[in-house]
Amino acid sequence: MLENKIALVTGASRGIGREIALTLSRLGAAVIINYNGAKERAEEVAALIEENGGRALAVQANIAAAEDVEKLFKEALTVFGRIDILVNNAGITRDNLILKMSEEEFDAVLDTNLKGAFFCMKYAAKLMLKQKGGRIINISSISGIVGNPGQANYCAAKAGLIGMTKSLARELGSRGITVNAVAPGFIETDMTKGLSEQVREGMLSQIPLKRAGSAEDIAQAVAFLASDHASYITGQTLQVNGGMNM
Question: For 198-241, how does the pLDDT look when each residue is reduced to its tens digit (9 = 90+)?
C-alpha cells in the first residue's frame, strides 16, 4: 500500500505518533521518527520497525526551532533521498484558565503545535513540489473545532492547523500534493490517563460509540490519507471521535 514511500512523523516516540510510525511501516513505508527529548523511546520504535523488516531512522529535533527542522530534513534526505509523506503530529499542552495562563504557556504551545508544523510543511512543500507529488497530514484535535475550557492555547493551535491545512491544500493541489488534517476526539494516550474518573465518564457520555478511541484508530485514518486511495481528497479534516462532534 505504501511500498517505496518515505514518511516523516514528528513526535513519533510515543502515543499517537508512535502508532502512526508503526502503522505506516507495516504498510511498506520507510519512517523517519522525529523526537525531541525521548531518545530511548524513539530508538525503541526504530528498532521495532527494523526487527519487523522495515526501515527506520530516529532523528532528534525540536520542531519549534527552524534550525532544528532544517537539520531534521537534511538528515532524512541524506539517508533516504526524498520524503513522500509528512505527518505533523508533535504537540504539547500547557493547560490553564485564560485568566491564569502566562504568555510563556501560550507561546510554548503555539510554537510547537502550530509554528513547528509550519516549519515542517514549508520544507516538505519545497521537496514535494520538485517531486510533483506528496502527502501532508496534520494532526489537529476536536478541541480545535469545538473548544475546551483551560486550553485556549491548545485550541488556538489546533484550529490554526486546520486553517493552514486548507490554505496549503489550495497552494499545492495543482502539483499532485494533498494536504489534510485528522482531528482526534477522546483518545486513550498518556495525556488522557491522568483524567479523573468523573471527567472520563463525562466525556464518554458525549460519545455515541460509548468508548474512547485508540491510537490505532488515528493511525489507520492517517494511513488512508497517505495512500493512493485518498488521492482525490485534499483540504479536509477527518474527525475521528466516535461521533462526539456529530
Answer: 878 888 889 999 999 999 999 999 999 999 999 999 999 999 99
Within 81-115, residue ranges assigned H as helices are 103-110
Residue 141 has which C-alpha cell?
484535535
SS3 84: coil
Decide if 154 is catalytic.
yes
pTM: 0.96
Question: How is the beta sheet containing 177-184 ordered, strand by strand?
Answer: 56-60, 30-35, 6-9, 85-88, 134-139, 177-184, 237-240
Asked if residue 243 lies in contact with residue 208, where contact means CB atoms within 8 angstroms, the answer is yes
Distances (CA, A) of 211 to 56, 182, 214: 33, 19, 9
Q: Identify which of 148, 135, 126, 95 has the alpha carbon closest to the alpha carbon of residue 226.
A: 135
Residues 118, 37: Cα–Cα separation, whole Å: 20
Nearest-angstrom CA–CA distance, 241 and 154: 18
* Sign of the dihedral through C-alpha 115, 34, 226, 152: negative
Tell me if 177 sits within 8 A of 128, measured CB to CB: yes
CA distance 229 to 242: 22
